[in-house]
Write a structure and sequence with these properties.
single chain, alpha+beta, nine-stranded mixed beta sheet, 33 helices, 26% strand, Phosphoenolpyruvate synthase, Phosphohistidine_dom_sf, PEP_Utilizing_Enz, ATP_grasp_subdomain_1
């Protein structure tokens, strides 16, 4: 399924998983690491093993594949042993080696190419050539048709990023972070290998970014030389049209060549490929070895550019005989329901009913299976103490017979949603006391007495039992109730049962569950189990190393008994680390103890163990041997690593107190979460691209926003090409749209080049004109410019005049969708099926207009640069002045309408200022002041769907959260600052004459600017309509978050925004604490990372010199939006909730020129933004209202503090402390 190499060509990975019937799979895994050489799975060349699947996950022999997003992201991991082989030997003898090493890795695979389907995307010329080579007949056509109809395979190129650890690595336990780029090949249907007689498959990539995938196939009784493949070059996928490689000349009769050289052609060019074959591992397919593959690692040269790749030779071997006798593998499963136990209140640990997890909980269920296994095994002197369970049905019955307990639980859940810690503590204390003081039903008590006396009768003496709970949904083993041990009478047993039920309502348990995203209330049973008579020692045994998961090591921990604990001794007394030696014995490789120990130089051998002799150890040699033997048998039976709680009696009998799967797979690290949505081909060294310009994505989206709006943007871009021209769209994974470390980067110049190169055949040489400094006498410049200009007119004509009206009608339809009622699954289905698909249309139209605007902007820049000026930064201001003079810009009226509202409020200023935000909202909507009411309703009707970071789903609009706009109104009212738009506006002069451009340039500018201003106005209106659709989306998700909290799926609403759209659906269908914990970790990382700035966040789209940032005595240099010099105190804000602190005359320093800050423009003296573009909404409004503004002032929010006197110099594009400006 996977093969590739890292970017340095030093680490190579090949993973193949072929799933067959009866849970069997062919599993192939090769790994080459420079320090360790070549590694393969221990069972190679045999590949057959068992697999399990479910919930988009596949497991087989330590390999785990999890689909995170279809066609986009997969999680690939492995934990287990691999064999180090000597590649100088004959590959058929590689399995003779005895050197096993522990390996683990976990990678996130992200695609950077669209899927290539080998049948539908293959060039018809290759198919025609393959058919023309064969003798035609009915049988031929039938078999050929069957071959192509059953071949449902596709391939994608992508990048794996993650951590690799091999025992003995120099990096230690932390492992090594690596990038691996290669292919994901997926084939569905019947056993496709049965169609082939042989094939040659080549996957290669060169250092200059050319990716090659090629197959030459010889099928059984059909095509003898069928070719399919493609080349990825310049971010485009091109199907192969011809190939001069002949299959019969390479590898016939299994004679693998050292060199393969051939030429391959596409419609875009030809390539010369040379493969130098190095390592040649062998593996067989199927139970009967009817197929044989040589997956050869190779050095590859594509047009003399070095690279790496794989060359696979496959041969059908119908006469082969598998020499391996495979053991019958049986997996011990824990079924959900085993017997009809609907009304059962008590279940014996020795009975069949104890195998029902939903009845007795996980702990009791695993105990029951362990007991059944030991009863049938030959292990001597090993037992599970007898006992019984008070089932989950008894817990339900207790709540039914005591309705006041149910009411208290419901009240506790309501209190938990209010997040008042003191109230939660009081209510939980009352709930705990109510449970412990409640009385069990007589029928339940009688059944408990019956089973308790059976245990007593079994021992024929006074018995001592332990009482502990077993949760039906035991999500977290770190939280467990203190077991009641040493219970000897019936009353104590009944009291201990009530305490186990009550413990989940204790304040400690509630806080722990809330912190880890666990449900507050869960069904549970209670285990009553005999304690071990004459217990000598007890502890815990891990069948694999619990931290690394190394299966060659097991860990035995010995704990002191209760008497020693009462004497305040350390709980952990001894810890033994045992390592498997030659699969026959164990060696003690580490021993730590709280007691003094001495070691001798000689070793003592045992039938199972050999280790250095230790004195005064807790365990003898025989004890360690017996425990190791029991652990190995249970591990084989359960087919998984286990955590076993054990006890040894005075007669050295082993008692298993608990056996459950050992959870080794750790949660995602911060680094994994930070990069989980990164675009492929992006790493720490090459993410320098332009910041978002089209206003369709937030700068740093939450996972929910990324998985919905961001995906809709990409789908809109792809659909746009299909709508305008019936041609193949550009690559969905193009680097024009990127995510890196949670931040969005959009290069609209790249989008323009891609889209217009496809749609209007604008050659790259013409586009490069924009970044050159052509002379005024350049004839070629004018000819290319006129050609581009003519095509630009076609762009505007392609946009239908009635499209805005269509979008308005479409938006009004979307706003009628009811997203305020229903269950969580109903709301999610409505969002997925009705609202999310509807977002593509407004995004499509907005992107079309924004991209055209960017394209014509590049034309204006080219004309300005043709004037020969040496100040490229001034071009940006000139472009904004020329294109920003729009008469009917809706966004520019936001400050104007707010000022009218504030003017109407002046007579009631004191009354309004005294109101809290929610009361102030009610007052504005009341009849207290009809003019104010009318203006407020007008503002909300026009702009209620806008807000700060309005494209982020987590940020509510002004109509949904009126606190934000009330804050702005109060700030304007308090500071009494008004701006006159007409006075602040630039004088209407002929800017083209001021620039002193040549006549032809003036003619081009006048024609272009009229179109550009129309495009800007249209773009702003389309954005407003787009945000109206997004507001419906926000409203639906806000109600869904509320419903999820009400259904106890999430501890608070905000966590939903840190899950993807797909993960939310998973959570609704099947509660997962791992998903909740992941959302908690993501949110923590989001806030921590939000305040940090990437080194290369802002790179101007204008030129390499524009927007460059320098630091000289805390001077931040950016890009001028409005050339004005002001002086005042700084106000640094990163959150809109602090906007009420803004004072008149301050210079606002924020992250981006967002429309959410525009209500404060009449108050402030200037604004400085760390990111942004001159055509963004906030920047153009600042220019329109005469507010001093610079953008792309990197790290300004960190270099300046609130209250510090600063000077904002728009002429020099700088902000600096006033103290340095006065020098």
């Amino acid at each position: 399924m996977e093969n590739g190499s890292d970017v340095t060509q030093s680490t190579v990975l090949s993973l193949k998983l072929i799933m067959r019937s009866k849970s069997q799979t062919d599993l192939v895994l090769y790994l080459q690491v420079p320090e360790h050489g070549f590694l393969q799975l221990p069972n190679h060349p045999d590949t057959v093993t068992c697999y399990s699947s479910g919930n988009d996950r596949f497991h087989a022999e330590g390999v785990s594949l999890e689909m995170l997003e279809p066609m986009q992201r997969w999680r690939i991991s492995y934990r287990g042993l691999m064999r180090m082989v000597d590649t100088n030997k004959d590959p058929s003898r590689w399995s003779d080696g005895k050197s096993l090493v522990f390996v683990k890795f976990r990678f996130l695979w992200t695609s950077y190419s669209t899927p290539h389907y080998f049948v539908s995307d293959a060039d018809v010329r290759l198919l025609s050539d393959a058919i023309a080579r064969e003798p035609w007949g009915v049988d031929f056509w039938r078999k050929t048709k069957r071959f192509y109809e059953s071949n449902h395979s596709y391939e994608q190129w992508g990048q794996m990023r993650g951590n690799l650890y091999i025992d003995g690595m120099e990096e230690g336990v932390a492992g090594r972070d690596i990038y691996i780029r290669g292919t994901k090949f997926l084939s569905c249907g019947s056993d496709h290998l049965s169609f082939y007689r042989r094939y040659l498959r080549i996957r290669a990539r060169s250092n200059n970014g050319v990716d090659l995938s090629l197959e030459v196939v010889n099928t059984n009784n059909s095509l003898t030389h069928a070719v399919a493949g493609y080349v990825i070059s310049d971010r485009r996928t091109h199907s192969i049209t011809w190939l001069d490689l002949c299959l019969w000349e390479h590898g016939e009769n299994e004679e693998i060549p050292d060199v393969i050289q051939f030429n391959v052609g596409t419609d875009q060019g030809n390539y010369n490929v040379v493969c130098l074959i190095k390592t040649r591992p062998i593996h067989y397919h199927g139970v009967d070895w009817k197929g044989k593959s040589h997956t050869c690692l190779s050095d590859v040269y594509i047009d003399s550019r070095p690279g790496t790749g794989f060359v696979e030779f496959y041969y059908s071997t119908p006469n082969a005989v598998c020499p391996i006798e495979r053991p019958i593998q049986t997996t011990l499963l824990v079924p959900q329901t085993y017997v009809d136990s609907k009304n059962r209140l008590i279940a014996s640990l020795m009975g069949e009913e104890a195998k029902n997890k939903l009845l007795v909980g996980k702990k009791a269920c695993y105990l029951a299976f362990t007991n059944f296994f030991l009863a049938e095994s030959t292990l001597p002197e090993c037992y599970v103490p007898n006992g019984f369970c008070v089932t989950a049905n008894a817990y339900k019955l207790h709540l039914q017979e005591n309705p006041y307990l149910r009411k208290m639980i419901d009240h506790l859940q309501d209190v938990l949603s209010n997040e008042d810690k003191e109230e939660v503590f009081d209510v939980s204390k009352k709930c705990y006391a109510a449970f412990t003081n409640s009385i069990l039903s007589s029928s339940l008590v009688s059944q408990i007495q019956e089973h308790f006396f059976k245990l007593k009768k079994q021992r024929n003496s006074k018995i001592i039992v332990a009482v502990r709970f077993s949760s039906v949904e035991e999500y977290d083993e770190n939280l467990s109730s203190p077991a009641s041990v040493g219970v000897s009478c019936m009353n104590q047993v009944l009291s201990a049962i009530l305490k186990c039920w009550a413990f989940q309502f204790s304040y400690e348990a509630l806080l722990h569950r809330r912190k880890h995203g666990l449900p507050y209330v869960s069904e549970m049973s209670v285990i009553i189990q005999l304690m071990v008579e004459q217990e000598r020692i007890a502890g815990v045994l891990h069948t694999s190393e619990p931290n690394t998961g190394d299966p060659l090591q097991s860990v035995i921990e010995v704990y002191s008994d209760n008497k020693k604990k009462s004497e305040k001794c350390e709980s952990l007394t001894d810890r033994y680390v045992l390592r498997k030696h030659n699969n026959e014995s164990y060696v003690v490789v580490a021993h730590t103890s709280n007691k003094p120990t001495q070691a001798s130089n000689h070793a003592i051998k045992n039938s199972l163990l050999r280790f250095p002799k230790h004195q005064r150890c807790c365990l003898s040699y025989d004890d360690l041997a017996k425990l190791s033997k029991v652990a190995e048998a249970l591990k084989t039976s359960f087919q998984s690593d286990l955590k076993i709680k054990w006890s040894l009696s005075s007669t050295s009998d082993v008692y298993i107190l608990q056996a459950k799967p050992l959870v080794i797979d750790p949660p995602e690290s911060d680094d994994e979460l930070l990069h989980e949505f990164d675009t492929a081909k992006m790493d720490d060294h090459n993410h320098t691209v332009t910041f978002e310009q089209m206003g369709i994505c937030p700068e740093m989206p939450t996972p929910l926003t990324f998985s919905t709006l961001y995906r809709a943007v990409i789908d809109g871009l792809q659909s746009s090409d299909k709508e305008l021209r019936n041609i193949k769209s550009f690559d969905l994974h193009d680097v024009a749209l990127n995510i890196f470390e949670g931040r969005v980067y959009v290069n609209t110049q790249d989008i323009s080049m891609l889209r217009y190169d496809d749609l209007f055949r604008v050659d790259s040489q013409s586009m490069q004109t924009f970044d050159e400094q052509p002379t005024m006498t350049s004839t070629s410049f004018y000819s290319r410019l006129r050609s581009i200009f003519r095509r630009t007119m076609v762009v505007f004509n392609a946009f239908r005049k009635n499209s805005e009206q269509e979008l308005l009608e479409f938006t009004e339809t979307v706003e009628k969708i009811d997203v305020t009622s229903g269950t969580s699954i109903e709301l999610h289905e409505k969002i997925s099926e009705e609202i999310l698909p509807a977002l593509t249309k407004p995004i499509l139209m907005h992107v079309q207009c924004a991209t055209r605007l960017n394209f014509i902007r590049k034309l204006v820049e080219a004309i300005l640069r043709a004037s020969g000026t040496d100040q490229p930064t001034s071009h940006d201001v000139d472009v904004l002045m020329l294109m920003g003079d729009v008469d009917d810009d809706e966004d520019e009226n936001i400050p104007c309408l707010l000022q009218r509202l504030v003017t109407a409020l002046k007579d009631q200023k004191d009354e309004f200022q005294a109101l809290k935000p929610l009361k102030a909202t009610d007052w504005l909507q009341s009849d207290a002041n009809e003019k104010v009411q009318e203006l407020y309703q007008e503002f909300m009707t026009k702009y209620g769907h806008r807000s700060l970071e309005e494209t982020e789903l987590r940020e509510l609009s002004w109509s949904q959260d009126t606190t934000k706009i009330i804050t702005a109104i109060k700030a304007l009212l308090e500071n009494d600052c008004m701006l006159e738009q007409d006075n602040a506006k630039k004088e209407s002069i002929d800017t083209t004459e001021k620039l002193k451009l040549p006549q032809i340039h003036c003619h081009l500018l006048k024609t272009l600017l009229a179109k550009a201003r129309q495009a800007i106005s249209l773009c702003r209106r389309l954005r407003s309509l787009y945000m109206r659709n997004v507001t419906v989306f926000k409203r639906g998700y806000w109600h869904l978050a509320t419903q999820l909290k009400r259904e106890m799926k999430l501890p608070d609403e905000d966590l939903m925004y840190f899950l993807t759209h797909r993960e939310v659906m998973k959570l609704i269908k099947n509660y997962s604490p791992k998903l909740v914990a992941k959302s908690i970790n993501r949110r923590h990382l989001y806030f921590r990372h939000q305040n940090s700035c990437s080194e290369d966040t802002n790179t101007s789209s204008m030129s390499s010199s524009t927007g460059s940032l320098e630091y000289r005595d805390c001077v931040c240099t950016g890009m001028t939006v409005f050339p004005k010099k002001v002086r005042g105190p700084a106000r640094v804000l990163t959150d809109i909730t602090d906007a009420f602190l803004i004072q008149a005359g301050e210079i606002l320093i924020v992250r981006s020129p967002d429309v959410g800050w525009t209500p404060f423009y009449p108050v402030i003296a200037g604004i400085v933004c760390e990111v942004g573009d001159i055509m963004s909404c906030g920047a153009s409004i600042a220019q329109e209202w005469g507010v001093a503004c610079i953008i792309q002032a990197k790290n300004a929010t960190r270099n300046f503090t609130t209250g510090e006197m600063v000077v904002l110099d728009g002429d020099k594009s700088t902000i600096r402390p006033a103290s340095t400006a006065d020098r």
